[in-house]
Specification:
homooctamer; alpha/beta; Rossmann fold; 5-stranded parallel sheet; 4-stranded mixed sheet; 8 helices; 40% helix; binds adenosine monophosphate; binds magnesium ion
Chain lengths: 219, 219, 219, 219, 219, 219, 219, 219
């Protein structure tokens, strides 16, 4: 656990038993396990093993990300909202990673999907909702235009996540990363597909706001 | 003259007398001269020389681009409009290059400046005007988001020009170029700062439309 | 549907049942389905399923691209011709993508294959045919010389598509892309292998010309 | 003014009179001017002109960044502290840019200079001070290790700014940028030398905390 | 054998019988075999074959690296210690390669694992041990900060090995390599994942020190 | 003198007296001096100095390349022709370098300028002349298409020289280099702007052919 | 057939029946077939099919390259020798490609393997043999030093082939390619792994020399 | 002072008075000053100032690197030799940097210049001298082949320094760096032009050997 953020288990490239074993250890030491990039097969192994070995544990699934909650886990609660926004369906798994970290820390998450700039009216329809969050994570691939457009519409801190979609020149997220670093509005960036880091950074901001709110407004 | 597009004189890195000499030759052979990336000093040399040597020539200035018209030049006229759009002031000289080519070919040019996506309302305010053009050139630097947003709002062909602004990673137009190649809408691209090529390509489209219009609608 | 261009189903990396399901949805909502980068296995699944579920649908195959037409689909027709040109056989699937979009929109397509510059006489033999089209798409891999040579021979707008062939330095289409951006003639470019985008851009040009022709020559 | 952050005048590459003119306009419209990357000559021109034209304006200098305050300017005040940290002297001008934005918005700034990791004890000596800030900006060039080390020592959000120092492979800030995107702790990043953007992002976080503190702890 | 360093068999991409055959040849000609990047399957083939064909050979396993010692092998011994340090578990196989070379040459190896800078106290806890070695190899992936921090804490030569971990921009060890080349302290570098080369270079240093020690202190 | 090719003096970045001094030494030791990338000022210094110090030396100028011949220099003669071809005027200085090396070795040089593929008829008009040479050097910048087209038209060895023209993506000769390495015909390549190396390689081929011709046809 | 060089069949990524079918067509049209990068399985399919369908055809195998000779094939013969040199075993398949082209054209081939510069005495031992060839192809991977060293030792034209070995920075042949383009001696280069092109270019040189020799020494 | 290595003053880009001032401070605090990349003008300013202000200081010049010794400076002495080798004259200033660090620490320096591999006999002539040093620094630009060749001839640790010579692809030292990282022999690398770091690393090795020698051979 670094910076009060739990370690996550990166399931891709691991066998189902390996994922299960790592999840069991995490559950023992921190009362819950976070698993990202999980496959259906790995998820089923998790479900069937834990039905036996930890029958009172709860499994929460956010797309390709999973959280296993032990019976003793005490869910914290933050008085702060993180908006998590995607441009298209391909951005979903990256946003899922962000979501599970924020949720685990107790932030309210408002997830807004599929509002990429190619159909700008869908973006504009969500402006009020975007303005209601305390901080925003915006994930976008290919040319990565959505975080810039969103940041131009709100006054809160925006964390942009370039996503490794696209083929040809600038594919695999490099165009989106470069574009976000060049953004003519104000935002900060994490690495390509680094949804977990974006979620963790948003959590640190949400905790600071929560602390300010609940410390009765003074320092 | 390739493809019915005049050669232009690229003034950057040439001395004022060199620019003047090249302009004189162009004037003799094609009845007009196009000069791009001209400095004030070069422009003044042009003015004072031509006042003497070609007193009935006309100088038209489009920012850093200049067209010198000989007395015999017969300005063609196309029944077609090219919209030329910039995201910010830094994109001006590149748009100027495009503009002089289209103008020289006789297209109507509608220039719309400084409507970059960081202030999205300025973009949206111009939608009707953008839709009125037969084809659009959109120039944008840094993250190059504007051409994608514009192309999502119109039904006409859009030619995007990445501009070499920005510093750090993806600077010098590379982020904009990569982003435009990755664009999730429909557009085609020319090289960084290649305003002249964009203008020439738009001219070819405008000519095709003009021919269709004036050839009494049939082929 | 963006810019009046139908969405396509990108079959690569999807299972045959996934492709079939997406095609069925497309057929229901837009009366036809476009599928790119299809395998033989996926195509057979499509054929056998639709024989049952949609017996009056028609399957058109353009190499690795397929169009499924529902009984209700009203084929539009444009008074405009798009020439689609390839340098070699490896460019075929990319040209197929372009072709299906143009065909779907009702343009006449003139396909000219395998006229790469290593055997220049084959290129030159086709000049008259190339000049007859209203706009050209030219696909070429490796060093990507063909679009430049073709554009030097015609007066119509050329859209160049770099293709991801070649190995070693500049392989995977990067040499072709860079060369086309540097082209010393007039053309515009889409991303590596982006045949679909090239077809869509040519369609927008063809529509503009068709409108000019059929709007009885005036605006 | 985007996102409540004033526009700054980027002095590099502008003449002294141009900088002065832009500063005068900014002063008129927003009651103060922010100028980054100013030279001594430009600063002196500013001083001597404003001594005449705006005798009651105040000039504040933060290294290569300057703020000119008009008599009417109402300095806001935020109940929040931004720590601004540099690894070495070469990072100073970038940190100055960040500092002037945060100061202009009314945040308390705690500047901690020259604590790069090559002399780790200097870093460790400042841990308590670093923990006291509400959010941190850390600027570092060459290998850019400092932001990672600092972020491992505090619980607050860290914004890292890679700085364009270094020569050879990975020079000009590219090694630092890549390293920060790969950081094994939690932080977000802005582009190379983008001190202004880092300051603006930290300001948005500081404002959110201030609002939470001063809105009597509830929403 | 180059520079007194044995050739190693790089097992990745070879079949189990190929690895066994190469190991048998090495055993015959140099009385031992070094195999790097071995899989479990390859290792088992090695064990079962050698049980028959060379029953008095010994197999030493260092993670994914293996040394087979023939009965006649005379283990040299150096009066010198090489410290081998990793930032995290992903760096293990690369460090194993280094270790087997140093061990084979007779150096004392002190292996210190998992002291990456994200948890700086773990790094600092090992300072005395790090200072005791005659030379250090430090392997680190992602942002590669550990070798710089370690080199700032000791007075002995440090050889840094960037490791191909990390995804996105700067992944596959490129960020670590660039950062180490930019390091603001004193160290030298080998290629990404080149644990074998690092071990060989450390061996050459250890041999020079051993020679100086055992040649009764004079030359 | 490497490989029987004289060293050349690379004048760019040297002072006029430095160039003169190096030329004097070359004249003394090898009876002639080759100087590449010379400026007018450097050339005049050469002329005026040698008028005094070596009045019977001859200066030959090939654009920006110069050869100074001492009175004793015995010009060799090869029974072989090197064709040197450029796409445009910007390729001239690079071709000059090649030309002086071939001339110095005694090859007949046939220089064919300005036949780039944008005006293909100019290329085709020269086919017979191109076929007459024993080997060809073809220099081209921007997209570098000319060497591929030429090599497709002749049966002799072609050495391609990419030239550092062009701006934006692939500028400075990188697009031409990558395209030439990807060429779908048969040719070999030297580095960007390496006219000297191309001339030297063509000289080695010309010498081999000359030797075969003059050694009465047998070995 | 371009430039008198036969087309080759690139077997990698094709099925055994595909390779057989293509070989049959080549045999019919040009009396022989050249196949590169063949697998054992593909080779066996070739053998067993041709035993039936073309029993009087001959199969020649050069490592991973194969030539099938029809009964009618008339083997040409050139009075010229091509030396083909490799640095290590990994360079073999690339050299095999070169060898089959030269052999097919009738040149004498002198193959010299495994003389890379890490064991310089092996290189120097072969100097006389290297000097005897009329032209040399030198293939080398990793740092690609061998072609430079060889070219410094002979007076004949050297064609260098960078080979895609090596891992980490500069791996996959990019370091070798860049180093060969920077070579401080005289040589020309083909793309990474382009053994076939190198063989074809050497063939063109060998043909020119042969023609000069056999045309009784005059032109 | 890091790792017992003095800080050096990098003169390039500083004014003569700045260099003098920094040298005075260094002289006061560490009894000597090291200045790299000094110009003639800066050196003269140093001489004339110190003639007045520090008349008993001594100035040592090593090409473009200078060491100023205060009267109190106690020159240490190491019982160890560092060989410093260059491929050509362009590598001189980089080697000078290395030399001054080693000299300052008291190592014996054996400088061997201009033995690049294009004239291999010059390299081989120096083998005995190269073998006599305790450790070697080898600086080479363009393709950077020399360090690999040298390392193949000696048994001591080699530190390679790529030098920023060369133009075109792989220029500015990148080809040399990549080639050295790929070297098929054993060596370690520092960044392009980082002669100072190479000298410091060699110093650390020399100190370890000296300590072993003078600590009467035991530990
Ligand atoms: N070959 C293609 N090139 C570019 N875009 C495509 C291609 N095929 C499908 N698309 C578009 O890619 C987007 C995502 O497609 P899919 O992955 O099928 O959901 C849709 O907007 C499609 O219209
Ligand atoms: N140092 C800086 N870094 C990033 N943006 C800046 C900086 N200085 C000014 N800007 C912004 O750059 C844009 C263009 O500035 P200018 O070139 O002065 O017109 C404005 O939005 C400024 O706020
Ligand atoms: N992990 C490794 N890293 C670097 N070189 C290696 C490694 N393993 C083996 N080698 C060397 O690579 C060369 C070729 O090995 P092989 O592919 O087994 O023929 C030999 O010189 C080995 O010593
Ligand atoms: N234009 C050129 N291209 C490539 N090499 C050159 C050129 N001009 C000179 N050289 C070579 O560069 C080396 C160094 O030249 P210099 O910098 O004059 O000492 C010598 O081997 C010259 O033969
Ligand atoms: Mg997007
Ligand atoms: Mg923009
Ligand atoms: Mg092609
Ligand atoms: Mg740093
Ligand atoms: Mg690390
Ligand atoms: Mg060209
Ligand atoms: Mg090699
Ligand atoms: Mg060298």
């Amino acid at each position: 656990q670094r910076r009060g953020i739990p370690e996550a288990i990166y399931a891709e490239g691991k066998s189902a038993p390996q994922v299960v074993a790592l999840a069991e250890t995490a559950l023992e030491t921190t009362d819950r396990a976070l698993i990202t990039r999980i496959s259906d097969e790995q998820f089923e192994a998790l479900e069937s093993t834990f039905a036996d070995s930890a029958p009172d544990a709860t499994l929460e699934r956010y797309g390709s990300t999973v959280r296993v909650l032990g019976a003793e886990f005490e869910q914290p609660s933050l008085e702060a909202t993180v908006g998590i926004v995607t441009a298209g369906t391909v951005d979903g798994p990256v946003a899922d990673e962000a979501q599970v970290v924020c949720t685990d820390a107790g932030a309210t998450v408002d997830r807004v999907d599929d509002i990429g700039v190619a159909a700008l009216n869908r973006t504009l329809d969500q402006v009020d909702r975007l303005r209601d969050a305390d901080t925003l994570i915006v994930a976008a691939g290919r040319e990565g235009a959505l975080p810039t457009v969103v940041a131009g519409l709100v006054d809160t801190p925006v964390i942009a996540v370039p996503v490794s979609s696209g083929y040809g020149h600038g594919g695999d997220g490099e165009a989106a990363l470069a574009g976000l670093l060049q953004s003519c509005t104000v935002l900060s960036v994490v690495n390509i597909d680094a949804g977990f880091v974006a979620g963790a950074q948003a959590t640190l901001i949400a905790r600071a706001i929560d602390a300010a709110r609940t410390d009765d407004g003074s320092r």
